[in-house]
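Worked problem 6 (solution included).
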Amino acid sequence: QVQLVESGGGLAQAGASLRLSCAASGGTYSNYAMAWFRQAPGKEREFVALLSWSGYTLYSDSVKDRFTISRDKSKNTVFLQMNSLKSEDTAVYYCARGSVMSYSPTQYTIWGQGTQVTVSS
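Solution. The predicted structure is:
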């Protein structure tokens, strides 16, 4: 029943920042883990960051200290603040909801449509 819609992607220069949003409808984030994944053409979907219902966060080594995942519960929205962008961050970014905390995309059952992030150098 719940639907997720990502937004905020676009073209950015290396070193710049972008903030992605994931708006949920038809439900809430209560007692679910929310995560961001990304996928470049010809590559597997890659874990980026997660946020548990209790506020625990986890980041991939490639984005830690640069990206921050957060939530606005009043708006049922999850954010991914991306700073110090690199060309290797170029990908389609997806938000997802799962019943357990995991870096594996197979553990998430609800996905957004994705938003393109392109970083130029």
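Discussion: The two ends are 41 Å apart (CA to CA).
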